[in-house]
Amino acid sequence: MHETLIEPLQSSLTADKLVIVPHGPLHYLPFAALYDGADFMLEQYSLRVLPSASVMAYLKTPQRSGQTTMLALGNPALGDPALDLPGAQNEVRALSNVVPDTVVAVRERATESLFKRYAARVPVLHIASHGEFNPEEPLSSRLLLVGDESNDGSLTVGELYDLELNSELVTLSACQTGLGDVQSGDDVIGLTRGFLFAGAANIVASLWMVDDEATARLMVNLYNNLQNQDKQQSLRNAQLSVKNNYQAHPYYWAAFQLTGSGR
Q: Which of 3, 6, 106, 252 has the smallest CB count inside 10 Å?
């Protein structure tokens, strides 16, 4: 894939930051994991992705308001032990030590209603839960949270289109959250596009079912990096940390990609 897609452009790639707008099935390709025989692209560039050029019309600079810096939801109680994510629970609690003024909600408190209550007024939203991609009905793709009398706990793409966010970053530390259905106009309908349309400037999301421990490590590194780096460089350095200090195989670090402005 590197030989086909990247080598013909190599002489033109003089910057260390790249913006990639994939076409067709390339939306599902982890570009950071492309390998030239010596290095992964991750080791050469910091990357961000746009699902289509039309998304640029939605990107905006969020305005900070209020005292809460981040809402972090983790390991919601979904009524099935097979869906428990203890690493995600530890992850969001660890992040509260990195990001000041964080509201942490785990297990029964990680509700869809809490998300909607904070969504419009928090600059950073972090959801460490399961995501489901529905290729037959992309607008029904969803994040699984806890339901209550007001919301059923299934946060769908369709619902995201009705929200107004003011987020500089939404992190979906979950399974298959970055996937969408490639439409005839080469646009993507999925959770990432839903959050962009709702007003998020940047989304970090995964392309496949991720490793719990590796993801927790990556996320702590990401938020530490964000203290003095932009979104694009922060994700790259977090991925490099997992690759160099935990597991070198791309399965453990290449699932996550940044979509949005990069700032």
A: 3
Three-class secondary structure of residue 45 per DSSP: coil
Q: What are the angstrom distances between the C-alpha of 46 and each of 33, 237, 258?
A: 12, 9, 10
Instruction: Determine the Cα–Cα distance for residues 26 and 76; give it in Å rounded to an integer.
Output: 32
In the predicted structure, residue 65 carries a pLDDT above the cut 60: no
21 burial (CB, 10 Å; 0-12 / 13-18 / 19+) is middle
Closest alpha carbon to 177 in 200, 193, 198, 162 = 193
Place of tokens 């596009």: 193
Strand ranges in the chain using DSSP code E only, listed in sequence order: 17-20, 46-49, 70-76, 102-107, 124-128, 131-132, 142-144, 154-156, 169-172, 180-182, 188-190, 202-206, 256-260
| Length of the chain in terms of residues written | 263
44-56 pLDDT, tens digit per residue, is 999 999 887 777 7
- Fill in the DSSP letter of residue 40: B
The ranges assigned to domains in the chain are 70-229
70-229 is classed in which CATH architecture?
A: 3-Layer(aba) Sandwich (3.40)
Q: How far apart are the first and last CA of the chain?
A: 28
| SS3 assignment, position 26 | helix
For the full predicted model, state whether its pTM sits above 0.70: yes
* Residue 83 C-alpha from the chain's centroid: 19
- The three-point CA angle 49-217-133 to 5° equals 45
Q: What are phi and psi of 227, to 5 degrees?
A: -65, -30
- Tell me how far the alpha carbon of residue 58 is from its chain's centroid: 17
